């Protein structure tokens, strides 16, 4: 906003209905008329909006919302769904690999347990035979 000491004021002519609207805005936003007009001017300058064109903000927001939803759905279809499918395939392959590995090791453990049991049984038989031989002498 401009400093009033540096700038000279100008008078403008407006309709009574417009003057009433300005008063309502000033009251609502707690601004002077000069501050309000400066704020309006800054707003249109910064936003590059044409004050002659009235838009329905709700409709514009709804359009943006619909565009965003469409974008998200497209990303889901094109990117996320294939990624999830690939991840599911990898998970299934990993589970199958771990099951196979588990079965392989389980089979080896079972085989080792059987061989160990056989060795222990044979060792007991040999120990008994040796004991009998030693007792005979």
Query: How far do the termini sit from each other?
Result: 122 Å
- Global geometry: rod-shaped
Structural class: mainly alpha
User: How big is the Rg?
Assistant: 44 Å
Low-confidence stretches: none
Q: Main beta sheet: strand number and arrangement?
A: none
Order of helices and strands: HHH
> Beta-strand level of the residues, as a percent range?
under 5%
Give an overview in words:
- The chain has helices at 16-29, 33-47, 57-136.
- It is rod-shaped and about 140 Å long.
- The protein has 137 residues and is an all-alpha fold.
- The chain is built from 3 helices and no strands.
Short key terms for the protein model shown above:
single chain; 137 residues; mainly alpha
Q: TL;DR of this structure?
A:
The protein has 137 residues and is mostly helical.
Structural topology:
Layout lengths: L15 H14 L3 H15 L9 H80 L1
